[in-house]
Specification:
34% of the residues lie in helices and 17% in strands. It has 239 residues and is α/β, with parallel strands linked by helices. The strands form three sheets. The protein has a five-stranded parallel β-sheet with strand order 2-1-6-5-7. It has a two-stranded antiparallel ribbon with strand order 3-4. Strands 8-9 form a two-stranded antiparallel sheet.
Length: 239
């Protein structure tokens, strides 16, 4: 998969692109990341990429010309999505990341700055994505999260692909609690069922823990999961 990150601060990505599983995935050519700076597409000596908003207001906006020129300089793959990282976009979640990892060969990610971007950039964009209901100084951190979340779903990034299927959010529930050695740490003991060797009972315990943990921490997720389960069972009964 090809990623084209349009950013005023490409240096922000240096450590991220060389570290951990992401760095290994890029080294193995599972994905390619290209950093594109809109300043390189300006025509004035000051390399100006921002200007005051029409109608007045606080702060500056990113100008459309450098962004358009940067995006239009890129190759176009057949399955391509142009994403603007924006607090007004759809909230990033696991289904979104899986959709991007499965159905696209190229993701162009535009990182906004200042008070945002000129709205005419929307003519380039096919999707807006938000990290959450809060404001950051720029789109680089959300872009890193998107990049990381998508690349780790690509075949070959994670050693055991099966582990991707049993994580939080993959089945609509949070993950179950997990433990490793020692079995007793400061009086906190690993649940006996995990030491029993009874895999059927362990699976039952883990499933119930997922439900209980989701009910406690994310009741909104549990409600969505129960609704989806009800609809699935109703559909199977009709068949």
């Amino acid at each position: 998969m090809r990623f084209d990150i349009v950013t005023l601060f490409p240096d922000c990505f240096t450590s991220v692109l060389s570290s951990g599983l992401l760095g290994k995935a890029l080294a193995k050519q599972i994905a390619q990341v290209h950093l594109v700076n809109p300043r390189d597409f300006t025509n004035d000596k000051h390399r100006k990429v921002d200007d005051e908003p029409y109608g007045g207001g606080v702060g500056m906006l990113m100008k459309p010309e450098p962004i358009f020129a940067a995006v239009e300089s890129l190759p176009i793959l057949s399955r391509r999505e142009v994403i603007l990282m924006s607090p007004q976009g759809q909230t990033m979640n696991q289904p979104l990341l899986r959709d991007l990892a499965t159905n696209y060969d190229q993701l162009v990610v535009i990182c906004g700055h200042y008070e945002g971007v000129d709205d005419r950039v929307q003519h380039l964009v096919t999707r807006e994505v938000s990290l959450g209901d809060f404001i950051l100084t720029g789109g680089e951190i959300p872009a890193m999260a998107l990049l990381n979340g998508v690349v780790r779903l690509l075949p070959g990034t994670v050693g055991k692909a099966e582990s991707l299927k049993v994580e939080s959010f993959e089945e609509g529930l949070l993950d179950y609690p997990q433990y490793t050695r020692p079995a007793n740490f400061r009086g906190w003991k690993v649940p006996e069922v995990l030491l029993s060797g009874n895999h059927a009972e362990i699976a039952k315990w883990r499933y119930q823990q997922q439900i209980d943990r989701t009910r406690l921490r994310r009741p909104d997720l549990l409600e969505s999961w129960e609704q989806a389960k009800h609809e699935k069972n109703g559909s199977q009964e009709q068949e």
